[in-house]
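Hi team,

Below is the intake form for MMPL family transporter from Micromonospora robiginosa. Please confirm the fields before the structure is written into the shared record.

FORM ID: S-0412
PROTEIN: MMPL family transporter
ORGANISM: Micromonospora robiginosa
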Amino acid sequence: MFERLGRFVVGKAWWVIGGWVLAAIAIVVTSPSLSDITSADQESFLPRSYESVQATELATKAFPQAATATATIVVKRGDGKPLTPADEARVGQLAQALKGRNIPQTAGYLTGPQAVAPDKSVQIISVGLDADTPDDPKLLDAVRDLRAGLGPDLAGSGLTAGVAGDVASFVDNEDTFNSAFAVVGVATIILIIGLILIIFRSPIAALLPVVVISVVMSVTTGLVAAAGKAFDLNVSQDLQTILLIVLFGIGTDYILFLLFRYRERLRAGDDKRTAMIVTVQRVGEVITSAAGAVIVAFLVLLLASLGFFGSLGPALAIAVGVMLVTSLTLIPAIVSLLGRWVFWPSKAWQRTPKASLSRRLGGAVGRKPALVAAASGALLVALAAGVLSYQADYDFSAGFPQDTESARAAKDLQRGFAAGALAPTEVYLTTGNGTPLTDQQVTDFAAASADAPGVARVQPAERSTTDPSVARINLLLDENPVSNEAITLVRDDLRDALHAKAPSGTKALVGGPTAIFADINSANNRDLSVILPVAAGLIALILALLLRSLVAPIYLVIAVLLNFAATLGATVYLFQGLEGKPGVTFQLPIILYLFVVAIGTDYNILMIARLREEAREGHEPHQAAAIGVEHAGPTVAAAGLILAGTFGVLMLAPISFLQQMGFAVAIGIVLSAFVMSMFFVPALTGLIGHKAWWPGHGDERRDGGGRHAAPESASEVQV
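The structure came back. Fields below:
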């Protein structure tokens, strides 16, 4: 099949390229924008069965006037002394002055005696921020306008003020985020161009992936947006960045697979057309199987209860599908037309290296497969042991620079009130049947809530103005509201206690940021326990179909899962162990699933396919392992270095979770490429020998000469 595809693409190269250009233009012009299906709400990705979502829905109906977000102005004396009655009056005047400015998207400006800390250290002004979506840029402008008015209005008063809250924090760190992702984008292009330039010594080969993948990115974005509109899918605002990384990661992999094999065929004496036909024939099956495994891994995310995963899966599957079609059609068409010019001006491609590093490594694997398998396996197991200490961290603010205005104001607020002051736990008391709540019921529940586990302070109850059956009581926890301790408290103890304290005929629903993260934690744990086994089983099935074997897929999938655990363990050792962090970002396991399990499987498939090919040429298992590493090793190394280097740049960002993500994915790709695929898998395959291909005997020679026949000519070793 792939030989016929290769002949068609090479024979109709200009038609293939023209068809691609027309299709790309049509898709880009007619597709909606990706922003049309983007959502920024964490709770919008949770199923309705979770209590925090039910609380949010109740709040939307009972308190429709509630703001999208809140900016908290924290006022204190410049000399650190307690606020005086005159200071409190001045804060009230500040609230009125700011309100009089009619700053767009703001409302409320609530302050007063209840907004003064018990120790008189600070007084707050709560400002409602309202917009169509929580990520509306107008909210950022509102915070900037608030800050601009603080200095002039407090001049000469001896008071200082700062604005805290999620929106204020984003304002403070917006430049850091933008510069970090800009650096990643630039680094990706530099690494791709630079490394391929070093490998092939050709600017044409170096620029080819960047140009083609940029076009594919536009096509993919349009198709994902169209699919989102058609099937009513919401996606995270991070999708654009994830799509970019996935496409450059797998796209560069597949293009390198083709270029390395094309160069090999040209060295063997094939003309440019025959070389590409044979390349598509030999590598097409590998790329298709690798893409199929990645697509399956992404589509398994549809089984997730957390909507973020479910919406991400189809989008990334579309991206991989587009890249697969590109790799089997557009790239071969372009390269077949360029021929040897794709490696211009270098002439080094014409000569096979006599004593390359990959040949020496392959020789070591072939001579001592037991030792290599034991050493590489032991390294992965030792790193995987770190998973036993894994803790999830939901506190994004702790990972941001702490010298910003929002960070300083948040610390002042928490010192004056309670650790949970910036993100209260919202408890909604309702009769559930429309019957009005009595004042006594609300008062009794508010009083009883003060005795609930972990509650430091109970704020005054609010009655709904539109639904007399609902009241809201905000609780300030004595723990950081996004810490593991607070999340565990809400999930395991606080909810049950509040449910029990609800007066007869009423029920309590617990919401707010801590409750949302508690539910995300539960959903996350459930999803990973489902996704990983199902994905492993389906990837094993694809490998079984590719290799016609039941043995090899088993240890290949075990290797992939072990590599996943080793990557997470290495991250735990560094950040929880050496740096003393309370945990690693809760998003990390799914990030590793996307970039280490799914994409890292590419390297395994490329290597195992080459091992089978060398076995079919008549080489004994140890020799096949040696030659397989020699020929597939440079491709795996180059692809791994590019992807690992791209993520490694994130470690330079002054934001903790970006550093963690950068390190984790970089080390995961390094382990995938240089430990698992380069050493562990070929050594284990050489050690198991012919039994690795049972029952299909995929290592038998294609000409029927039997497994143990020697190659007919030296040129066969280079195929």
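SUMMARY LINE: The chain has four domains: 1-30+176-352, 68-164, 356-411+520-700, 424-511.

Thanks, M.
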